[in-house]
Amino acid sequence: MITQQKSLIIIDKVVKSNKIIIQAIIIETINLIGKCKGWKLRTSICKSIKDNYIIYNKNNLLCRAMKEFIVYDGTLSFTECTALISMKDLNN
Questions:
Q1: How many CA atoms lie within 13 A of 8 on its CB side?
Q2: Is residue 83 part of a domain?
Q3: 1: pLDDT confidence band, cut at 50, 70 and 90?
Q4: Residue 56: its H or E element
Q5: For residues 23-41, b (16+ Cβ closer than 10 Å) or e, as one string?
Q6: Which tens digit of pLDDT belongs to each residue from 35-84?
Q7: Residue 42: inside a domain, yes or no?
Q8: Residue 81, Cα to own-chain centre: how many angstroms?
Q9: Which residue range is the domain that position 66 belongs to?
Q10: Does 9 reside within a domain?
Q11: In total, how many domains does the chain have?
């Protein structure tokens, strides 16, 4: 059982350590937020994640997908934009 004192020690270690997140989690988070609060909030959430986490990001996919997402002005989901960029990469 974790006591309150142990939890304070654990949280202190978490705050000081590097936080790593994968793209799939970011994509799903941004899509869920968009469904609840609208697509415009997604870009600020993405910026916040980028500022606070180390993102496992092959070929800078996340940033390129966000640019594509902005171009489509919310008519494509962030996941669709990620898939679109991936398909373009695989065709080259």
A1: 3
A2: yes
A3: low
A4: strand 54-56
A5: eeebbebbbebbeeeebee
A6: 788 777 888 888 888 888 887 667 888 888 899 999 998 798 888 888 88
A7: yes
A8: 13
A9: 19-91
A10: no
A11: 1
Neighbours of 5 (CB within 10 A): 8
Q: What pLDDT is recorded for position 46? A: 83
Q: Is the pLDDT of residue 16 over 70?
A: no
Q: How far is CA 54 from CA 16, 20, 45, 60, in A?
A: 13, 5, 15, 12
Mean pLDDT over 27-33 rounds to: 83
Q: Count of residues for the chain?
A: 92
Q: Provide the token pair at 89.
A: 């990469």
Specify the pLDDT at position 34: 79
| Phi (first) and psi of residue 57, to 5 degrees | -140, 100
Give strand pairing partners of 56: 22
* 82: its two tokens: 């990620």
Q: Does residue 29 sit within a domain?
A: yes
What whole-number distance in Å separates Cα of residue 36 and Cα of residue 47? 18
Whole-number pLDDT of residue 71 = 92
